[in-house]
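Retro notes
What went well: the complex prediction finally ran end to end.
Inputs used:
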Amino acid sequence: MSMTTTVVAPVAPTDTARGAEVPPRRRVAAWVGLVPFGAYVVLFLAIPAVLAIASGFFDGDGAFTFANFSAYTNPTILQNFFASIWISALTAVLGAIGGALICFALLGTRPERMLRSTVDSASSVLAQFGGVMLAFAFIATIGAQGVLTKWLVSLGFTTNIFNNFNGGGPLLYQIPGLVIPYLYFQIPLMVLSFMPAMEGLKSTWAEANATLGGTRLTYWTRIGVPILAPAFFGSLILLFANAFSSYATAAALISQGGIIPLAIRQQLTSETIVGVANVAGVLALGMVVVMIVLMTAYSALQRRASRWRR
Amino acid sequence: MSAPVEAPRLAATRPGPAQKTPRYAAAPSRLTRGIILGVTAVVFLVPILAMIEFSLRQGQTGAYGLEHYVSIFTAGQAGTYDVLFQGILNSIGICVVTVLIVLVLLLPTMILVELKYPRLRGVLEFVCIIPITIPSIVLVVGFIPVYSVVARIFGSNPWTLAFAVGIIVLPYAYRPIASNLAAVEVVTLGEAARSLGASWGQVLWRVILPNLRPGILSACFITIAVVLGEYTIASFLSQNTFQTALVLVQHTDPYVAVIFAVFALVFAFVLLLIIGRLGSLGRNRRAA
Protein backbone atom coordinates (compact mmCIF):
# COMPACT_ATOMS: atom_id res chain seq x y z
CA MET A 1 0.00 0.00 0.00
CA SER A 2 2.64 2.46 1.03
CA MET A 3 4.80 1.07 -1.77
CA THR A 4 2.33 1.96 -4.47
CA THR A 5 1.84 5.48 -3.14
CA THR A 6 5.56 6.06 -3.05
CA VAL A 7 5.84 4.85 -6.61
CA VAL A 8 2.86 6.64 -8.09
CA ALA A 9 2.52 9.76 -6.02
CA PRO A 10 6.00 11.24 -6.41
CA VAL A 11 5.77 11.20 -10.19
CA ALA A 12 2.78 13.45 -10.53
CA PRO A 13 3.76 16.09 -7.94
CA THR A 14 7.31 16.51 -9.31
CA ASP A 15 5.96 16.87 -12.79
CA THR A 16 3.52 19.56 -11.83
CA ALA A 17 6.14 21.14 -9.63
CA ARG A 18 8.56 21.18 -12.53
CA GLY A 19 5.94 22.71 -14.77
CA ALA A 20 5.10 25.40 -12.25
CA GLU A 21 8.47 26.38 -10.90
CA VAL A 22 11.16 25.78 -13.42
CA PRO A 23 10.37 28.06 -16.39
CA PRO A 24 12.21 31.08 -14.95
CA ARG A 25 15.30 28.95 -14.26
CA ARG A 26 15.14 27.30 -17.66
CA ARG A 27 14.71 30.62 -19.42
CA VAL A 28 17.94 31.78 -17.86
CA ALA A 29 19.65 28.56 -18.92
CA ALA A 30 18.38 28.91 -22.49
CA TRP A 31 19.61 32.50 -22.76
CA VAL A 32 23.02 31.29 -21.66
CA GLY A 33 22.93 28.91 -24.62
CA LEU A 34 22.92 31.86 -27.01
CA VAL A 35 25.98 33.45 -25.44
CA PRO A 36 28.83 31.37 -26.98
CA PHE A 37 27.72 31.99 -30.55
CA GLY A 38 26.94 35.63 -29.78
CA ALA A 39 30.39 36.14 -28.26
CA TYR A 40 32.03 34.46 -31.25
CA VAL A 41 30.18 36.65 -33.74
CA VAL A 42 30.99 39.80 -31.77
CA LEU A 43 34.69 38.93 -31.44
CA PHE A 44 35.32 37.74 -34.98
CA LEU A 45 32.71 39.50 -37.09
CA ALA A 46 31.51 42.70 -35.41
CA ILE A 47 34.86 43.82 -33.99
CA PRO A 48 36.89 43.16 -37.18
CA ALA A 49 34.24 44.83 -39.34
CA VAL A 50 34.12 47.91 -37.11
CA LEU A 51 37.92 48.03 -36.79
CA ALA A 52 38.35 47.77 -40.56
CA ILE A 53 36.03 50.68 -41.24
CA ALA A 54 37.00 52.79 -38.22
CA SER A 55 40.72 52.53 -38.94
CA GLY A 56 40.19 54.86 -41.90
CA PHE A 57 39.18 57.65 -39.52
CA PHE A 58 42.42 57.68 -37.53
CA ASP A 59 45.83 59.04 -38.40
CA GLY A 60 49.19 57.45 -37.65
CA ASP A 61 49.16 58.72 -34.04
CA GLY A 62 45.64 57.47 -33.29
CA ALA A 63 43.90 60.86 -33.50
CA PHE A 64 40.54 61.15 -35.24
CA THR A 65 40.75 62.61 -38.73
CA PHE A 66 39.03 62.82 -42.09
CA ALA A 67 42.33 63.55 -43.81
CA ASN A 68 42.78 59.93 -44.91
CA PHE A 69 39.91 60.38 -47.32
CA SER A 70 42.19 62.50 -49.45
CA ALA A 71 43.22 59.06 -50.78
CA TYR A 72 40.14 59.34 -52.97
CA THR A 73 41.68 62.30 -54.79
CA ASN A 74 44.69 60.19 -55.72
CA PRO A 75 44.57 59.32 -59.44
CA THR A 76 45.96 55.79 -58.89
CA ILE A 77 43.28 54.98 -56.33
CA LEU A 78 40.55 56.43 -58.54
CA GLN A 79 41.87 54.43 -61.46
CA ASN A 80 41.74 51.28 -59.31
CA PHE A 81 38.17 51.99 -58.28
CA PHE A 82 37.22 52.61 -61.88
CA ALA A 83 38.90 49.37 -62.99
CA SER A 84 37.14 47.42 -60.23
CA ILE A 85 33.81 48.82 -61.29
CA TRP A 86 34.13 48.24 -65.03
CA ILE A 87 35.46 44.69 -64.59
CA SER A 88 32.66 43.88 -62.17
CA ALA A 89 30.05 45.42 -64.47
CA LEU A 90 31.31 43.74 -67.62
CA THR A 91 31.71 40.28 -66.05
CA ALA A 92 28.34 40.66 -64.28
CA VAL A 93 26.49 41.43 -67.53
CA LEU A 94 28.24 38.71 -69.55
CA GLY A 95 27.98 36.23 -66.70
CA ALA A 96 24.29 36.97 -66.15
CA ILE A 97 23.46 36.44 -69.82
CA GLY A 98 25.54 33.25 -70.06
CA GLY A 99 24.18 31.89 -66.80
CA ALA A 100 20.58 32.68 -67.69
CA LEU A 101 21.00 30.81 -70.99
CA ILE A 102 22.27 27.76 -69.09
CA CYS A 103 19.33 28.00 -66.67
CA PHE A 104 16.98 28.15 -69.66
CA ALA A 105 18.62 25.04 -71.11
CA LEU A 106 18.14 23.26 -67.77
CA LEU A 107 14.40 24.02 -67.67
CA GLY A 108 12.39 20.83 -67.78
CA THR A 109 15.21 18.65 -66.46
CA ARG A 110 14.57 16.88 -63.17
CA PRO A 111 16.49 18.22 -60.15
CA GLU A 112 17.28 14.78 -58.74
CA ARG A 113 18.89 13.56 -61.96
CA MET A 114 22.65 13.31 -62.47
CA LEU A 115 22.75 16.19 -64.99
CA ARG A 116 21.43 18.70 -62.49
CA SER A 117 23.56 17.42 -59.58
CA THR A 118 26.62 17.68 -61.80
CA VAL A 119 25.80 21.22 -62.93
CA ASP A 120 24.98 22.25 -59.35
CA SER A 121 28.18 20.93 -57.80
CA ALA A 122 30.39 22.13 -60.66
CA SER A 123 28.79 25.58 -60.29
CA SER A 124 29.38 25.64 -56.53
CA VAL A 125 33.02 24.64 -56.92
CA LEU A 126 33.74 27.27 -59.56
CA ALA A 127 31.60 30.03 -58.05
CA GLN A 128 32.71 29.78 -54.46
CA PHE A 129 35.96 27.89 -54.08
CA GLY A 130 37.82 28.31 -57.38
CA GLY A 131 39.94 31.37 -56.56
CA VAL A 132 43.59 30.52 -56.87
CA MET A 133 42.93 27.25 -58.70
CA LEU A 134 41.03 29.09 -61.44
CA ALA A 135 44.04 31.36 -61.88
CA PHE A 136 46.24 28.28 -62.44
CA ALA A 137 43.74 26.82 -64.89
CA PHE A 138 44.05 29.95 -66.99
CA ILE A 139 47.82 30.08 -66.71
CA ALA A 140 47.73 26.61 -68.28
CA THR A 141 45.18 27.72 -70.90
CA ILE A 142 46.00 31.26 -72.02
CA GLY A 143 49.19 32.04 -70.10
CA ALA A 144 52.46 32.63 -71.95
CA GLN A 145 52.94 28.84 -72.25
CA GLY A 146 49.22 27.99 -72.20
CA VAL A 147 47.60 25.43 -74.45
CA LEU A 148 45.55 27.93 -76.47
CA THR A 149 48.45 30.39 -76.69
CA LYS A 150 50.79 27.72 -78.03
CA TRP A 151 48.11 26.52 -80.42
CA LEU A 152 47.73 30.04 -81.85
CA VAL A 153 51.52 30.30 -82.18
CA SER A 154 51.62 26.95 -83.99
CA LEU A 155 49.00 28.31 -86.40
CA GLY A 156 51.41 31.13 -87.26
CA PHE A 157 50.13 33.85 -84.91
CA THR A 158 53.47 34.21 -83.13
CA THR A 159 52.29 37.35 -81.37
CA ASN A 160 48.63 36.96 -80.53
CA ILE A 161 46.09 38.47 -78.14
CA PHE A 162 47.04 35.99 -75.38
CA ASN A 163 50.81 36.47 -75.28
CA ASN A 164 51.01 40.13 -76.18
CA PHE A 165 47.92 42.15 -75.32
CA ASN A 166 48.11 45.87 -75.94
CA GLY A 167 51.91 45.66 -76.13
CA GLY A 168 52.12 44.81 -72.43
CA GLY A 169 52.93 41.11 -72.36
CA PRO A 170 50.53 38.21 -71.66
CA LEU A 171 46.87 39.22 -71.44
CA LEU A 172 46.32 37.14 -68.32
CA TYR A 173 48.67 39.23 -66.18
CA GLN A 174 46.94 42.52 -67.00
CA ILE A 175 43.74 43.92 -65.53
CA PRO A 176 41.59 43.43 -68.68
CA GLY A 177 42.77 39.80 -68.74
CA LEU A 178 40.93 39.21 -65.45
CA VAL A 179 37.64 39.28 -67.37
CA ILE A 180 38.18 35.73 -68.69
CA PRO A 181 38.86 33.90 -65.38
CA TYR A 182 36.22 36.06 -63.65
CA LEU A 183 33.59 34.81 -66.12
CA TYR A 184 34.44 31.29 -64.97
CA PHE A 185 33.07 32.03 -61.53
CA GLN A 186 30.43 34.57 -62.59
CA ILE A 187 28.51 32.27 -64.96
CA PRO A 188 28.32 29.45 -62.37
CA LEU A 189 27.17 31.93 -59.69
CA MET A 190 24.43 33.10 -62.05
CA VAL A 191 23.30 29.49 -62.54
CA LEU A 192 23.16 29.00 -58.76
CA SER A 193 21.26 32.20 -58.02
CA PHE A 194 18.94 32.37 -61.04
CA MET A 195 17.88 28.72 -61.31
CA PRO A 196 15.35 28.90 -58.43
CA ALA A 197 13.55 31.76 -60.20
CA MET A 198 13.55 29.86 -63.51
CA GLU A 199 12.13 26.80 -61.77
CA GLY A 200 9.41 29.02 -60.28
CA LEU A 201 7.83 29.47 -63.72
CA LYS A 202 4.61 27.51 -63.46
CA SER A 203 3.57 25.20 -66.26
CA THR A 204 -0.02 26.46 -65.86
CA TRP A 205 1.10 29.87 -67.16
CA ALA A 206 2.43 28.24 -70.32
CA GLU A 207 -0.81 26.30 -70.65
CA ALA A 208 -2.91 29.42 -70.13
CA ASN A 209 -0.83 31.19 -72.76
CA ALA A 210 -1.36 28.30 -75.18
CA THR A 211 -5.12 28.17 -74.52
CA LEU A 212 -5.37 31.87 -75.26
CA GLY A 213 -3.61 31.27 -78.57
CA GLY A 214 -0.21 32.57 -77.58
CA THR A 215 2.96 31.27 -79.18
CA ARG A 216 6.16 30.42 -77.34
CA LEU A 217 7.40 33.89 -78.33
CA THR A 218 4.42 35.57 -76.68
CA TYR A 219 4.93 33.33 -73.67
CA TRP A 220 8.48 34.58 -73.21
CA THR A 221 7.87 38.25 -74.08
CA ARG A 222 4.60 38.65 -72.15
CA ILE A 223 5.01 36.22 -69.24
CA GLY A 224 8.48 34.75 -68.82
CA VAL A 225 10.66 37.83 -69.18
CA PRO A 226 8.50 40.22 -67.10
CA ILE A 227 8.24 37.70 -64.27
CA LEU A 228 11.91 36.82 -64.34
CA ALA A 229 13.16 40.41 -64.71
CA PRO A 230 13.45 41.27 -60.98
CA ALA A 231 15.23 37.98 -60.24
CA PHE A 232 17.51 38.53 -63.22
CA PHE A 233 18.52 42.02 -62.15
CA GLY A 234 18.87 40.86 -58.54
CA SER A 235 21.28 38.15 -59.67
CA LEU A 236 23.07 40.69 -61.85
CA ILE A 237 23.72 42.82 -58.76
CA LEU A 238 24.88 39.77 -56.83
CA LEU A 239 27.35 39.01 -59.63
CA PHE A 240 28.60 42.59 -59.60
CA ALA A 241 29.14 42.42 -55.84
CA ASN A 242 30.86 39.07 -56.20
CA ALA A 243 33.37 40.31 -58.78
CA PHE A 244 33.84 43.56 -56.88
CA SER A 245 34.83 41.78 -53.66
CA SER A 246 36.77 38.94 -55.26
CA TYR A 247 40.47 38.87 -54.40
CA ALA A 248 42.15 35.46 -54.71
CA THR A 249 42.09 35.06 -58.50
CA ALA A 250 43.46 38.54 -59.11
CA ALA A 251 46.06 38.18 -56.37
CA ALA A 252 47.37 34.92 -57.83
CA LEU A 253 47.72 36.47 -61.30
CA ILE A 254 48.78 40.08 -60.73
CA SER A 255 51.56 41.09 -58.37
CA GLN A 256 50.94 44.86 -58.42
CA GLY A 257 47.79 46.90 -57.93
CA GLY A 258 45.11 47.63 -60.47
CA ILE A 259 41.81 46.93 -58.73
CA ILE A 260 40.73 47.95 -55.24
CA PRO A 261 41.35 44.61 -53.44
CA LEU A 262 44.87 44.61 -54.90
CA ALA A 263 45.36 48.23 -53.80
CA ILE A 264 44.38 47.19 -50.27
CA ARG A 265 46.98 44.43 -50.48
CA GLN A 266 49.61 46.98 -51.53
CA GLN A 267 48.66 49.17 -48.58
CA LEU A 268 48.69 46.29 -46.09
CA THR A 269 52.08 45.07 -47.28
CA SER A 270 53.23 48.66 -46.59
CA GLU A 271 53.74 49.60 -50.16
CA THR A 272 52.34 53.10 -49.89
CA ILE A 273 50.57 54.59 -52.89
CA VAL A 274 49.26 57.65 -51.09
CA GLY A 275 51.03 59.68 -48.42
CA VAL A 276 48.38 59.30 -45.68
CA ALA A 277 47.90 56.73 -42.93
CA ASN A 278 45.41 53.84 -42.83
CA VAL A 279 44.50 54.00 -46.51
CA ALA A 280 43.54 50.31 -46.32
CA GLY A 281 40.74 51.28 -43.91
CA VAL A 282 39.59 54.09 -46.18
CA LEU A 283 39.52 51.75 -49.17
CA ALA A 284 37.73 49.10 -47.09
CA LEU A 285 35.09 51.69 -46.20
CA GLY A 286 34.72 52.56 -49.88
CA MET A 287 34.13 48.89 -50.71
CA VAL A 288 31.62 48.50 -47.88
CA VAL A 289 29.67 51.55 -49.07
CA VAL A 290 29.47 50.09 -52.58
CA MET A 291 28.42 46.70 -51.14
CA ILE A 292 25.71 48.25 -48.95
CA VAL A 293 24.22 50.08 -51.93
CA LEU A 294 24.33 46.87 -53.98
CA MET A 295 22.84 44.67 -51.27
CA THR A 296 20.00 47.12 -50.56
CA ALA A 297 19.10 47.08 -54.24
CA TYR A 298 19.46 43.29 -54.26
CA SER A 299 17.11 42.66 -51.36
CA ALA A 300 14.54 45.07 -52.84
CA LEU A 301 14.63 43.16 -56.12
CA GLN A 302 14.51 39.79 -54.30
CA ARG A 303 11.35 40.88 -52.48
CA ARG A 304 9.79 41.79 -55.80
CA ALA A 305 10.94 38.54 -57.38
CA SER A 306 9.54 36.41 -54.58
CA ARG A 307 6.01 37.74 -55.19
CA TRP A 308 5.58 35.09 -57.87
CA ARG A 309 7.19 32.28 -55.93
CA ARG A 310 4.40 31.18 -53.62
CA MET B 1 16.56 12.98 -92.96
CA SER B 2 13.23 14.77 -93.22
CA ALA B 3 11.31 12.25 -91.10
CA PRO B 4 13.04 12.88 -87.75
CA VAL B 5 12.74 16.64 -88.30
CA GLU B 6 9.08 16.44 -89.16
CA ALA B 7 8.01 14.08 -86.40
CA PRO B 8 8.47 16.43 -83.41
CA ARG B 9 6.71 19.28 -85.22
CA LEU B 10 3.66 17.10 -85.78
CA ALA B 11 3.68 16.13 -82.15
CA ALA B 12 4.02 19.79 -81.26
CA THR B 13 0.81 20.80 -82.98
CA ARG B 14 -1.05 17.86 -81.50
CA PRO B 15 0.44 17.20 -78.07
CA GLY B 16 -0.31 13.55 -77.38
CA PRO B 17 0.32 11.49 -74.27
CA ALA B 18 3.47 9.98 -75.82
CA GLN B 19 5.33 13.29 -75.67
CA LYS B 20 6.78 14.23 -72.27
CA THR B 21 7.28 17.97 -72.67
CA PRO B 22 4.66 19.56 -74.91
CA ARG B 23 6.04 22.37 -77.06
CA TYR B 24 3.89 25.09 -75.54
CA ALA B 25 5.80 24.68 -72.28
CA ALA B 26 8.61 27.00 -71.27
CA ALA B 27 11.25 24.27 -71.50
CA PRO B 28 13.57 24.37 -74.51
CA SER B 29 13.61 21.67 -77.17
CA ARG B 30 16.07 18.81 -76.82
CA LEU B 31 18.19 20.30 -79.61
CA THR B 32 18.40 23.78 -78.04
CA ARG B 33 19.23 22.28 -74.66
CA GLY B 34 21.86 20.03 -76.21
CA ILE B 35 23.53 22.92 -78.03
CA ILE B 36 23.62 25.27 -75.01
CA LEU B 37 24.79 22.63 -72.55
CA GLY B 38 27.25 21.17 -75.06
CA VAL B 39 28.91 24.53 -75.71
CA THR B 40 28.99 25.25 -71.96
CA ALA B 41 30.56 21.89 -71.21
CA VAL B 42 33.27 22.40 -73.83
CA VAL B 43 34.05 25.97 -72.73
CA PHE B 44 34.26 24.98 -69.06
CA LEU B 45 36.21 21.79 -69.67
CA VAL B 46 38.94 23.45 -71.79
CA PRO B 47 40.77 25.08 -68.82
CA ILE B 48 40.54 21.87 -66.77
CA LEU B 49 41.86 19.78 -69.66
CA ALA B 50 44.53 22.43 -70.27
CA MET B 51 45.67 21.99 -66.67
CA ILE B 52 45.97 18.25 -67.17
CA GLU B 53 47.85 18.75 -70.45
CA PHE B 54 50.12 21.28 -68.75
CA SER B 55 50.91 18.88 -65.90
CA LEU B 56 51.95 16.15 -68.36
CA ARG B 57 54.46 18.36 -70.25
CA GLN B 58 58.14 17.50 -70.01
CA GLY B 59 59.80 20.90 -69.90
CA GLN B 60 59.81 22.81 -73.18
CA THR B 61 60.48 19.73 -75.30
CA GLY B 62 56.89 19.19 -76.34
CA ALA B 63 56.97 15.59 -75.11
CA TYR B 64 54.51 14.26 -72.55
CA GLY B 65 55.14 12.11 -69.50
CA LEU B 66 54.29 11.54 -65.89
CA GLU B 67 57.56 12.95 -64.55
CA HIS B 68 55.89 15.78 -62.61
CA TYR B 69 53.55 13.33 -60.94
CA VAL B 70 56.46 11.03 -60.10
CA SER B 71 58.52 13.92 -58.73
CA ILE B 72 55.86 14.58 -56.08
CA PHE B 73 56.70 11.21 -54.56
CA THR B 74 60.43 10.90 -55.15
CA ALA B 75 62.45 11.32 -52.01
CA GLY B 76 65.04 13.63 -53.56
CA GLN B 77 62.39 16.23 -54.32
CA ALA B 78 60.64 15.80 -50.98
CA GLY B 79 62.19 18.91 -49.45
CA THR B 80 60.95 21.10 -52.32
CA TYR B 81 57.29 20.43 -51.60
CA ASP B 82 57.51 20.40 -47.81
CA VAL B 83 55.78 23.77 -47.71
CA LEU B 84 52.92 22.36 -49.76
CA PHE B 85 52.47 19.24 -47.63
CA GLN B 86 52.69 21.35 -44.48
CA GLY B 87 50.09 23.68 -45.98
CA ILE B 88 47.76 20.76 -46.66
CA LEU B 89 48.21 19.48 -43.10
CA ASN B 90 47.51 22.97 -41.72
CA SER B 91 44.40 23.24 -43.89
CA ILE B 92 43.15 19.89 -42.59
CA GLY B 93 43.67 21.12 -39.02
CA ILE B 94 41.78 24.33 -39.80
CA CYS B 95 39.02 22.21 -41.41
CA VAL B 96 38.61 20.20 -38.20
CA VAL B 97 38.42 23.28 -35.96
CA THR B 98 36.07 25.10 -38.36
CA VAL B 99 33.72 22.10 -38.53
CA LEU B 100 33.79 22.05 -34.71
CA ILE B 101 32.86 25.75 -34.66
CA VAL B 102 29.90 24.98 -36.93
CA LEU B 103 28.81 21.97 -34.85
CA VAL B 104 29.42 23.42 -31.38
CA LEU B 105 28.58 27.10 -31.86
CA LEU B 106 26.28 27.51 -34.87
CA LEU B 107 24.20 24.30 -34.79
CA PRO B 108 23.12 24.40 -31.10
CA THR B 109 22.30 28.10 -31.45
CA MET B 110 20.13 27.43 -34.50
CA ILE B 111 18.26 24.59 -32.73
CA LEU B 112 17.84 26.68 -29.60
CA VAL B 113 16.47 29.63 -31.58
CA GLU B 114 14.11 27.32 -33.47
CA LEU B 115 12.78 25.72 -30.25
CA LYS B 116 12.76 28.60 -27.80
CA TYR B 117 13.23 31.93 -29.56
CA PRO B 118 11.56 31.77 -32.98
CA ARG B 119 11.48 35.58 -32.94
CA LEU B 120 15.26 35.67 -33.09
CA ARG B 121 15.29 33.58 -36.27
CA GLY B 122 15.44 36.69 -38.48
CA VAL B 123 18.28 38.17 -36.42
CA LEU B 124 20.28 34.93 -36.63
CA GLU B 125 19.74 34.71 -40.38
CA PHE B 126 20.84 38.33 -40.81
CA VAL B 127 24.00 37.74 -38.79
CA CYS B 128 24.83 34.62 -40.77
CA ILE B 129 24.34 36.34 -44.14
CA ILE B 130 26.46 39.43 -43.31
CA PRO B 131 29.82 37.77 -44.14
CA ILE B 132 28.71 37.43 -47.77
CA THR B 133 28.20 41.18 -48.03
CA ILE B 134 31.52 42.14 -46.44
CA PRO B 135 34.38 41.31 -48.81
CA SER B 136 37.03 39.06 -47.21
CA ILE B 137 39.65 41.66 -48.03
CA VAL B 138 37.76 44.21 -45.90
CA LEU B 139 37.44 41.79 -42.98
CA VAL B 140 41.17 41.14 -43.28
CA VAL B 141 41.88 44.80 -42.49
CA GLY B 142 40.03 44.24 -39.20
CA PHE B 143 41.34 40.72 -38.57
CA ILE B 144 44.96 41.91 -38.46
CA PRO B 145 44.59 43.82 -35.14
CA VAL B 146 42.25 41.13 -33.72
CA TYR B 147 44.78 38.43 -34.51
CA SER B 148 47.60 40.27 -32.77
CA VAL B 149 45.52 39.62 -29.63
CA VAL B 150 44.63 36.04 -30.65
CA ALA B 151 48.32 35.28 -31.23
CA ARG B 152 49.13 36.49 -27.73
CA ILE B 153 46.54 34.10 -26.23
CA PHE B 154 46.84 30.99 -28.42
CA GLY B 155 50.21 31.60 -30.12
CA SER B 156 50.28 32.01 -33.89
CA ASN B 157 49.20 28.43 -34.56
CA PRO B 158 47.69 27.77 -38.00
CA TRP B 159 44.51 26.35 -36.47
CA THR B 160 43.67 29.75 -34.94
CA LEU B 161 42.80 30.77 -38.51
CA ALA B 162 39.64 28.69 -38.04
CA PHE B 163 38.07 31.50 -35.99
CA ALA B 164 38.28 33.84 -38.98
CA VAL B 165 37.39 31.19 -41.55
CA GLY B 166 34.42 30.12 -39.41
CA ILE B 167 32.95 33.58 -40.03
CA ILE B 168 33.43 33.26 -43.80
CA VAL B 169 31.76 29.84 -43.63
CA LEU B 170 28.67 31.04 -41.71
CA PRO B 171 26.46 31.82 -44.75
CA TYR B 172 27.28 28.51 -46.41
CA ALA B 173 26.86 26.41 -43.27
CA TYR B 174 23.71 28.26 -42.18
CA ARG B 175 21.69 27.65 -45.34
CA PRO B 176 21.58 23.82 -45.46
CA ILE B 177 20.87 23.54 -41.71
CA ALA B 178 18.18 26.24 -41.90
CA SER B 179 16.39 24.62 -44.83
CA ASN B 180 16.55 21.28 -43.03
CA LEU B 181 15.12 22.89 -39.88
CA ALA B 182 12.32 24.43 -41.93
CA ALA B 183 11.44 21.08 -43.51
CA VAL B 184 11.33 19.18 -40.19
CA GLU B 185 8.71 20.13 -37.61
CA VAL B 186 11.27 20.42 -34.83
CA VAL B 187 8.90 22.03 -32.31
CA THR B 188 6.17 19.42 -32.82
CA LEU B 189 8.68 16.57 -32.72
CA GLY B 190 10.21 17.99 -29.55
CA GLU B 191 6.81 18.36 -27.87
CA ALA B 192 5.80 14.85 -28.92
CA ALA B 193 8.99 13.38 -27.51
CA ARG B 194 8.65 15.40 -24.30
CA SER B 195 5.04 14.27 -23.79
CA LEU B 196 6.22 10.67 -24.19
CA GLY B 197 8.63 11.27 -21.33
CA ALA B 198 11.90 12.01 -23.07
CA SER B 199 14.40 14.31 -21.42
CA TRP B 200 15.74 17.33 -23.32
CA GLY B 201 18.98 15.44 -23.91
CA GLN B 202 17.08 12.54 -25.45
CA VAL B 203 15.00 14.92 -27.55
CA LEU B 204 18.19 16.44 -28.94
CA TRP B 205 20.17 13.23 -29.49
CA ARG B 206 17.48 10.82 -30.56
CA VAL B 207 14.87 13.04 -32.21
CA ILE B 208 16.20 16.37 -33.48
CA LEU B 209 19.78 15.58 -34.54
CA PRO B 210 18.89 12.42 -36.54
CA ASN B 211 16.28 14.46 -38.41
CA LEU B 212 18.82 17.18 -39.19
CA ARG B 213 21.48 14.76 -40.41
CA PRO B 214 21.35 15.69 -44.13
CA GLY B 215 21.52 19.42 -43.36
CA ILE B 216 24.36 18.97 -40.88
CA LEU B 217 26.32 16.77 -43.29
CA SER B 218 25.90 19.31 -46.10
CA ALA B 219 27.03 22.10 -43.79
CA CYS B 220 30.14 20.12 -42.83
CA PHE B 221 31.08 19.25 -46.41
CA ILE B 222 30.59 22.79 -47.64
CA THR B 223 32.65 24.01 -44.68
CA ILE B 224 35.48 21.69 -45.74
CA ALA B 225 35.28 22.95 -49.31
CA VAL B 226 35.35 26.61 -48.21
CA VAL B 227 38.30 26.04 -45.87
CA LEU B 228 40.31 24.24 -48.56
CA GLY B 229 39.63 27.09 -51.01
CA GLU B 230 40.26 29.98 -48.60
CA TYR B 231 43.18 32.16 -49.65
CA THR B 232 42.61 35.82 -48.73
CA ILE B 233 42.64 35.59 -44.94
CA ALA B 234 45.42 33.02 -44.74
CA SER B 235 47.73 35.05 -46.94
CA PHE B 236 47.28 38.27 -44.94
CA LEU B 237 47.57 36.59 -41.55
CA SER B 238 50.78 34.97 -42.85
CA GLN B 239 49.66 31.42 -42.29
CA ASN B 240 50.75 28.59 -44.54
CA THR B 241 47.64 26.85 -45.85
CA PHE B 242 46.93 24.77 -48.92
CA GLN B 243 46.08 27.80 -51.08
CA THR B 244 48.92 30.05 -49.96
CA ALA B 245 51.35 27.13 -50.42
CA LEU B 246 49.97 26.60 -53.93
CA VAL B 247 50.72 30.21 -54.82
CA LEU B 248 54.20 29.89 -53.31
CA VAL B 249 55.01 26.63 -55.09
CA GLN B 250 53.62 28.00 -58.34
CA HIS B 251 56.59 30.38 -58.60
CA THR B 252 59.18 27.58 -58.34
CA ASP B 253 57.29 24.64 -59.84
CA PRO B 254 54.11 25.56 -61.72
CA TYR B 255 53.56 21.94 -62.79
CA VAL B 256 53.14 20.61 -59.27
CA ALA B 257 50.94 23.57 -58.34
CA VAL B 258 48.69 22.76 -61.29
CA ILE B 259 48.55 19.04 -60.39
CA PHE B 260 47.41 19.87 -56.87
CA ALA B 261 44.95 22.45 -58.14
CA VAL B 262 43.30 19.83 -60.37
CA PHE B 263 43.12 17.41 -57.44
CA ALA B 264 41.61 20.08 -55.20
CA LEU B 265 39.00 21.08 -57.80
CA VAL B 266 38.01 17.44 -58.35
CA PHE B 267 37.93 16.80 -54.60
CA ALA B 268 35.67 19.81 -53.96
CA PHE B 269 33.47 18.77 -56.91
CA VAL B 270 33.02 15.26 -55.49
CA LEU B 271 32.28 16.64 -52.01
CA LEU B 272 29.58 18.92 -53.39
CA LEU B 273 28.22 16.17 -55.63
CA ILE B 274 27.72 14.10 -52.48
CA ILE B 275 25.90 17.05 -50.89
CA GLY B 276 23.67 17.25 -53.95
CA ARG B 277 22.87 13.54 -53.76
CA LEU B 278 22.18 13.83 -50.02
CA GLY B 279 19.76 16.65 -50.70
CA SER B 280 17.87 14.82 -53.42
CA LEU B 281 17.74 11.63 -51.33
CA GLY B 282 16.04 13.63 -48.60
CA ARG B 283 13.64 15.05 -51.16
CA ASN B 284 12.68 11.58 -52.38
CA ARG B 285 12.11 10.29 -48.87
CA ARG B 286 9.87 13.21 -48.03
CA ALA B 287 7.88 12.73 -51.21
CA ALA B 288 7.37 9.03 -50.49
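What we learned: The radius of gyration of chain A is 28 Å.
What to try next: split runs per interface for comparison.
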